[in-house]
Amino acid sequence: MSYDFTSAHDGSDQPRGALPRVGLLGTGPWARRTHAPALAAHTGSAFAGVWGRRPEAAAELAAEYGVKVYEDPDALFADCDAVAFALPPDVQAPLAVRAAAAGCHLLLDKPVATDVDQARAVADAAARHQVASIVFLTLRFAQPTARWVEEQAARDGWFTAGAHWLGAVFPPDGAPSAYADSPWRKEKGGLWDVGPHALSVLIPVLGDVVRISATRGPGDVVQLALRHTSGAASTATLSLSAPTAAAGVGLELRGTAGVHGLPDWSDVPGAYGRALDALLTSARTGVPDPRDAAFGARLTEILAEAEAQAGPAER
Length: 315
Hints:
Blueprint (H helix, E strand, L loop, with lengths): L20 E5 L3 H13 L4 E6 L3 H11 L2 E3 L2 H7 L2 E4 L3 H13 L3 E5 L6 H13 L4 E4 L1 H4 L3 H9 L4 E9 L16 H11 L1 H12 L2 E8 L5 E7 L4 E7 L8 E8 L2 E4 L6 H18 L7 H18 L5
């Protein structure tokens, strides 16, 4: 179902013909550094307000951008056409179900949830209430990586692929990053935090995953060996605890078209704006985006199976 942005969302004082209103849930480093600046800068929507689990942090962030602070997420849903999430995955999922029921389109963070049933519930709610959804997967919206993925997906004959995403969020040889103060990242590690990024490139190019083998390495390292519907095989090495000098991201495809490597990218704020563009386009046209909540639920299914095979991380 397409959505008419010329009529106000029930419960708001938005004038007819105004830009769609987007609310933000979350106040952590990711919300402050990426979500809020991108929402404020977006010319195709209006940044409506902020809700957070820490009221004082929500008030501070809202004041910085001159938007409304909400004490109740349901009040934010009532005032908004779409909502952006910057919350831990298993806090995000039940709130996303409530937002969809309130008629809000969903700009979700990855992973949608770390529980398969919760992730499926988000996808089901979006479909049932006919709202658009997008999962913000950086490589699928940043340039030039998003264009590169489309180009490689249009080619046949892929044989193998190898990916690595080695973050130094919890480095053994230095200070932790600004994103280290995150209980869910500490518990779940690189498999869940950066695994969605690697899979978001491998799957559209090589096809869905039909076979998984997962093993643990040192710390939170997980190594995946995957078989895809195209017949191609891929591997991925994932971690948030790499030594600082060893951190980095890469992905290489090999096949009849030769060897093709993932290009560098750096425009994360711009990528978030393009994710919002994609959400609003899907909402207007009624055409689901391939990076939607259903895709996010599939990623959760794959990661959950990998976690079950790999077992607990070293502590």
